[in-house]
Amino acid sequence: MAEILSIPRQVLHQEVAVRLRQRIVEGHIDPGTKLNERELSEFLKVSRTPLREAIKMLAAEGLVALLPNRGAVVAQLSEQDVADTFEVIAGLEGQAGELAAERISDAELAEIRALHYEMKAAFTRRDLPTYYRINAQIHGRINAAARNRVLTQTWATVNARLQALRFRSNFVEAKWRRAVKEHDKMVELLAAHDGPGMRALMVTHLNNKRDAVLELMQRKAKA
Length: 223
Fold this sequence. Notes:
This protein is mainly α and 223 residues long. The chain folds into two domains: 9-74, Winged helix-like DNA-binding domain superfamily/Winged helix DNA-binding domain (Arc Repressor Mutant, subunit A); 79-222, GntR ligand-binding domain-like (Four Helix Bundle (Hemerythrin (Met), subunit A)), CATH 1.20.120. 75% of the residues lie in helices and 4% in strands.
């Protein structure tokens, strides 16, 4: 708890939300855990007012649940919640992937390819936080290249609920390695402007992540 975070005053609650989101996504705060405002205020070196605003932001994203008589707790999805949400996100990413392959510009493709190389470097170092951050940027760039604002906004809303679970889907080495190979193929299909191929790959990619998450949840339940 000795870490000190420097947060600009003009965007205080937004920066607090970024830091708190990162701690939830990376598993420093477990699902179902009550958010202790006093401890978090001390850790983040901020007053409770911006902290509460940040918690409201994360609640709107689905990462935090505001419960009567309990306050704010880290959201805990059931296996059925996970299966249902991944089913939706797979459809959204499949459509985004197909549209992106058809509409992507050379500059956008070059940017995604550069991020892909950075992500693979993080994988080589087994630096999961950096890998996940860049991975999320790639998925965001693919959605942006689809050029459909409604699709992108809907994807962002649904994806927010799954951030922590998508991070944990790479805890198993073999599944992480498979995900990297799928990203190799994404770059190839985008470059070939293969819309149907990209749609199929994105659905497979998300279904594989769903299976990895459910396997971890079931293993934890049996422990």
